[in-house]
Amino acid sequence: MNQFLIADDHPLFREALKGALQTQFEGLEVFESENFETTLSVLSSQEELDLLLLDLHMPGSGDLYGLIRIREDYPCLPIVVISGSEDLTIISKVMGYGAMGFIPKASSSQDIARAIAHVLEGDSWLPVSIKDKVSGLEIEDKEVAQQVASLTPQQYKVLRYLHEGLLNKQIAFELHISEATVKAHITAIFRKLGVYNRTQAVLIASKLQLEPVEAMS
């Protein structure tokens, strides 16, 4: 019996995907999460998961940070990204950052099941139409992933607010923490990213953005 986690903020899509998969995989047990925080909670409590079906635009995941963070914390868990975007640059990064498959949301239930079956057997999977067009990661992108993987979710939230141009007091208000805590987070972010100022940190954050940006929080 397989155990899958569907991490997506749209309940109707989760329900439809769950129903489709349960017709394809006998005895399948499906867990659900609607944001990055609840996804981490399910991952920590369900140690026998066979697969994570991850939406890149899920609230709290911070663009590509969610994938990088989960890959770092759960290196043996197969991750398949399901997304409405088919941007080749993003797909290349998704695969380079550790996903074993990329499935467009427009795929049929049979195609989704076929892709998942490949991944469960240890193979990577991409749609035939884009398989030969996806390129490997640049060395710089790999370095960025290693740096960002060291950030906690709270630190990455601070980094995203830096990217948006917020002042320390504004970040403190948004996160309901003190300015002193914000400063401590920024110091840790600079150290982990190997940078010395906000501009350098923001440039790194820019490399993880998704286009178009949807459902950001």
TrEMBL record:
CDD domains: LuxR_C_like, REC_NarL-like. This is DNA-binding response regulator. Residues 3-120 form the Response regulatory domain. Gene3D superfamilies: 3.40.50.2300, Winged helix-like DNA-binding domain superfamily/Winged helix DNA-binding domain. GO terms for molecular function: DNA binding. Keywords: DNA-binding, Phosphoprotein. Pfam families: GerE (PF00196), Response_reg (PF00072). One of its GO terms (biological process) is regulation of DNA-templated transcription. It comes from Pseudoalteromonas aurantia. The modification 4-aspartylphosphate is found at residue 55. Residues 144-209 form the HTH luxR-type domain.
